[in-house]
């Protein structure tokens, strides 16, 4: 777990200082996103709603490992939980709880913080927040303007943008109303 954290931090610094192309390496050694056209996306976009993440994490109960056989049909949630640092895979592709994952399960008040810390570590989220400023704008349009041409189909844009908005709202970063978004007033409370 410590080495995974170091690796993710190093990769983010390498990207930040421009020593590598963002899509050349990922924190976990895998492609972050592949579009229907087969192009790799340089941005992590979640694939599972917060409710699905919580549901997967509740499967742990008192266990520290879940066998791969119990993960059928929830691969997107599994992938997102790995990105969030809640779980990690072992050699047999079973998933093990991390310290962050254990806290996530045992303390429901820590859940928004886990999402917030992760989302605010993504470079494009700062750009996204700068685009929405204090005015109400369409989440989908702001996301498209922030990420540029990813090669996503319109269906993929809609799917991924809804899930990202769900994460951002759960984390207390944005507020949504009738398809429009604004930066949450709470966000300033979490900045140091």
Q: In brief, what are we looking at here?
A:
With 192 residues, the protein is mostly helical. It has helices spanning 2-16, 50-58, 75-84, 99-106, 111-120, 123-132, 139-147, 154-170, 187-190; strands at 33-34, 40-41, 65-66, 87-89, 95-97, 137-138, 174-177, 180-183.
3D architecture notes:
By secondary structure, the protein is mainly alpha-helical. Helices cover 48% and strands 11% of the residues. The protein is built from 9 helices and 8 strands. The strands form 3 sheets. It has a 3-stranded antiparallel beta sheet with strand order 3-5-4. It has a 3-stranded antiparallel beta sheet with strand order 6-8-7. A two-stranded antiparallel ribbon has the order 1-2. Helix 6 crosses helix 7. The protein is globular. The two termini are 26 Å apart.
* Cα distance spanning the termini: 26 Å
Major sheet? 3 strands, antiparallel
Summing up helix and strand content along with how strands pair, one would put the structural category as: mainly alpha
- Mean pLDDT, all residues: 79
Shape: globular
Strand content: 5-15%
Number of strands: 8
* Uncertain stretches: 21-40
- Main sheet strand line-up: 3-5-4
Total number of helices: 9
Helicity, as a percent range: 40-55%
Rg, alpha carbons: 17 Å
Order of secondary-structure elements: HEEHEHEEHHHEHHEEH
